[in-house]
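2024-03-11 09:14:02 INFO queue: dequeued item Tumor suppressor 2, mitochondrial calcium regulator b, len=111
2024-03-11 09:14:02 INFO validating residues
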Amino acid sequence: MGGSGSKSKGFWPFSGSGSVDDSTKDGNEQSLARVRSFPGATPFVFTRRSSMFFDEDGDLAHEFYEETIVTKNGRKKAKLKRIHKNLTPQGMIKLDHPCIHVDFPIVLCEA
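2024-03-11 09:14:37 INFO prediction written
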């Protein structure tokens, strides 16, 4: 179900390798051992992909609309048409406060 996590791919250094020995170890020892094996890896995320776009005028927004006039039965009606073409993604942006990566395996606080 789902399958979008990085555990199956082994991409994130905190995810399981999928071997039989990993399932027999204690959870804390296992995750701490993996953290020590990747000294350059950090559980924090400092950047993210932006959901905003630039249009051809250089304006920045989530969505762009164009007002069109439709004449129906002799009456003029204004409609908004969403623009999909000629939009450039903003790209990666730096977060104000670092977040913890979703695949970080250690519980930080118990309730």
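2024-03-11 09:14:37 INFO annotate: Residues 44-100 form one domain.
2024-03-11 09:14:38 INFO item closed
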